[in-house]
Design a protein that fits this description.
This protein is mostly helical. It has nine helices and two strands. A hairpin with a 2-residue loop joins β1 and β2. 24% of the residues are buried. The C terminus is likely disordered.
Length: 316
């Protein structure tokens, strides 16, 4: 019942999440103020206001970049949680949930990397910088990809599930490191959005929170949809495996029955041949017994002397 309710919410969450993200984007580019950047060489009048610092239009990417990155961390946390549950209970349902969450994690990690690279190119003039946040997040992406490589490299489903669960838990260690690295390493040049020393003004905070809510709704909806697809695919694989086992058993039973028939036929042939030989021997013994004693053993000889004596002349 709980699963049916959650699946029933998927279309509504997708629509609501898309609407919130649309409001976030429109608000970001219309009402949210630009971030003050570097000092300009000379003041510039923009919209009737004197601007003395560089206005960073590229900073508006963070209204979606940060929510997407946080969604990737949340999804990976869910994957690690269900991986731990699977190792504790050996329930394959937990493995399916963990694998599905890792798929959602990979989707949002790729989206985070694309949006982050766009900001890096616009702001820093390069596509990539080996700074702590980018490096640790790039390692996280490689770990998630390695998770799926590991699962596909093992043919035994049980072994693949166990190894993948352990790997998922170990890989999740990099998620909080990547999130906190900009606070732990002062030399990091990556911007820090969540800070305690200063807060966002309402015109910047409201669209950010709307975008956060919309992205999390879409992430949850995608997770539920992918979970349903993966569960159905696993059921199909189980049915195929059972059918193959039944076909194998049926083939072995048919082969055993055929072998029994051949053995029975061979026994009948041997029995028929033996009885025919016995009848032939009996007939031979009967014919031999019908002769006079010694007739069978004494060959028949002619009497030439008698015949010759009958043709000799008589003496006077």
């Amino acid at each position: 019942m709980h699963k049916n309710r959650a699946d029933a919410l998927v279309p509504a969450l997708l629509v609501l999440g898309a609407l919130l993200i649309a409001v976030d984007v429109v608000w970001t580019f219309t009402l949210a103020p630009l971030v003050q950047g570097a000092q300009l060489s000379e003041p510039v009048v923009i919209a009737g206001q004197m601007v003395t610092t560089k206005l960073l239009l590229s900073q508006k990417i963070f209204y979606l970049h940060v929510p997407v990155a946080i969604a990737s961390f949340v999804a990976m946390g869910v994957a690690a949680f269900y991986a731990l549950r699977f190792l504790m209970t050996k329930d394959r349902a937990h493995d399916v949930r963990s694998r599905t969450a890792m798929q959602i994690t990979l989707v949002f990690i790729v989206a985070t990397m694309i949006s982050g690279d766009l900001w890096t190119r616009f702001e820093w003039g390069v596509w990539w910088v080996w700074e702590p946040r980018l490096t640790t997040y790039f390692i996280l992406m490689l770990l998630v990809i390695g998770y799926f490589v590991l699962r596909n490299a093992l043919d035994d489903p049980e072994k693949a599930a166990r190894f993948a669960a352990v790997f998922c838990i170990v890989a999740f260690v990099d998620a909080p490191i990547s999130f906190l690295i900009t606070r732990l390493v002062p030399s990091s040049v990556h911007p820090v959005v969540f800070r305690t020393d200063s807060g966002l003004p309402p015109l910047m905070l409201i669209p950010f929170l709307l975008g956060m809510a919309g992205v999390l709704m879409i992430a949850f909806a995608l997770y539920r949809y992918a979970l349903r697809v993966n569960a159905a695919a696993d059921e199909v694989e189980d049915l195929k495996r059972r059918l193959e086992e039944l076909d194998g058993e049926a083939s072995r039973a048919a082969a055993a029955a055929a072998l029994d028939r051949l053995q029975a036929r061979a026994a009948d042939v041997a029995l028929t041949g033996g009885s025919g030989g016995a009848r032939g021997a009996t007939a031979f013994d009967a014919s031999a017994g019908s002769r006079a004693p010694g007739e069978a053993d004494t060959p028949t000889r002619s009497c030439p002397d008698v015949s010759r004596a009958s043709h000799m002349p008589k003496e006077d």
